[in-house]
Hints:
Shape of chain A: globular
Bound molecules: iron/sulfur cluster
Number of strands of chain B: 10
Distance between the termini of chain A: 25 Å
Oligomer: heterodimer
Distance between the termini of chain B: 71 Å
Amino acid sequence: MRVALFITCLADQFYAEAGVAAVRLLRALGVEVDFPEGQTCCGQPAFNAGYWDEARPLARRTLEVFREAEYVVLPSGSCASMVRNHYPELLPGSREALELAEKTYELSQFLVRVLGVEKLGEGLRGRKVAYHHGCHALRELGVKEEPLLLLKNAGAELLPWEAAEECCGFGGLFSVKLPEVSLAMAERKGETLPEAEVLTSTDAGCLLHLSGVLARKGKGLRVAPLATLLWEAYAG
Amino acid sequence: MRAKARLYPKEAARLLKERPGVRRAVTGATLHFERNRLRAYGEVDIEAWRARAKAVKDHVLSHLDRYLELAERKLRENGATVHWAETPEEAHRVLRDVVARHGVRRAVKAKSMLTEELGVNPLLESLGVEVYETDLGEYLIQLLGEPPSHIVGPAIHLSLEEIRRLFHDRFGTPLDASPEALAAVARRTLREAFLTAELGISGANFLVAETGTLALMENEGNIRLSTSLPKVHVAFVGIEKLLPRFQDLALFLPLTARAATGQRLATFVSLIQGPGEGGPEEVHVVFVDHGRTALLHDPEAWETLRCLRCGACLNACPVYRQTGGHPYGYVYSGPIGAVLDPGLLGLEEAYPLPYASTLCGACYEACPVKIPIPKLLLAWRRRAVEAGLSPRLEGAALKAFRKVMESPALYRLFSRALRGVPLGAQEILPLLKAWTGGRGPLKPSPKPFHQLWQELEGEWTPGNGS
Ligand code: SF4
């Protein structure tokens, strides 16, 4: 099986480790991995802010870049949802958009639903993990059980977190358009955060935002993308 | 009500800074409602209920003219007087008439968001009529001179301390009075008002076309009193509030109660057919348009008219929770306000409200009639950009962003530049400054992934057995 990785801009720039982990993990599971050249951003920031004319060319180039792929896998829930759910809206009538939507998966979703892998190894034994459900992964893609299952089966102790399914307040441009509200939301996540060793999620945006706010509030726990933890689950 | 929606970002920031207690009170109360809702939804086949409710509402909305005519006929047969008001001014005329004809000096009012829209209280006051809000929360904010902060819990933003202080100043109650004692004081004042008012004013949760029945839900008993004791009752009903058949109430009453407060049914439900024994001598029903017909013809935004005003989306919304409703600057706040207000006020007047959301989708999940709020937010944003309402700097930034992302070569250049900028310098860039305050500088990975990929390529190739 062959998978084309779509790393998208935020992960590429700020969580390159998620990409590395995704490559190693997929290869270890016997999957061939491509990284098609010319990929950049999925267009989500512009789309969500209402600039559909700026988002459209980026969606078109993504269609072009991944035209030949059998599967497209992203270590990012919101970008995966952008391709899966919003490209067909943004490019109505495009058969290619529908085709791409159908073959696009967030990493943990791909592992569980397509590869049928539920256990990667036991590399997370005894680790206390808090999982933040990125909103688009949770409510648009319906990815809820997959990451939890993979983490749990790797021996992680998933700590109960009252606000695990609440939005962290990142929201792309929301965080700069309404910075005070955005920070208040992140603080609430922080106030309710259990005593974990590591905080993880599928999305680079949420992690950037949360890690910044938590560090300022003196909560110095490790913040790592889900892909990184899944690789640790496998490799120990 | 005059809208101040354009001030939303500034007002939200100010409130967070100046009244931190509001955030605490609103978060506590909405989480409580939210937990109740989830429990109440869990007791039934909620997906089937939501689908059914949506279908019934869509049917009414797509045959609205027919059902309005039927409702009017039935109401007349029941002895009620029917009026039509396209604008607040036309609604005012009806009230003015009633006040003049009956020499009204005092009115009691049941909680109603539509009357907020129409500015009923200021009108009555200008006519020399004393108005008493009779819902406890609504009474509190009337004393404070504030607008409602929540569709269902108008005083949700107040702490018990603030209410104690208010009552201490107004009625001389002790500063540590129990909530029950405070409620008793309010009740005493209101009882006097109920008995002496010549006019009762209400909204309507539903109006059944088949039978001409007004349905009103509440927990305090004040609506029942407001609509039965005074000799005249005027009900303002948004034209979207119709239900086709009487039996539809069997779905919509429990669904609304579950969504709003997690109750199986409201404590009191009043079904009013018209004037009659033991009730008022005159019942007036005013069908109000106020922008709704235009909204109905909007191919993207019409779905907002399914709204039951249950407030579930507000309770579920993490953005609303930080500030309550006041910064939104209009009657309807929270997620539904962000999509309904542009429809009622015009997008220009309501401009930044569609951005008062992270598109997290919690509102859609909560909504009993499946209004696709995130999709509507996106539509309003797209229109705002098309209409040139967005800040110029933002447009320029996104255009530049697109240019960079469109060209892999430029993107690589940008990527190198990002690593060349000293972290301190981020404070200078306007958009980044908003980010770094509170979060610290953005620290890129030492190398971007697209560069690491070349190193990874050598690491393993299929078939080499590692
Ligand atoms: S939009 Fe839905 S959840 Fe919000 S108030 Fe209306 S009916 Fe209730």
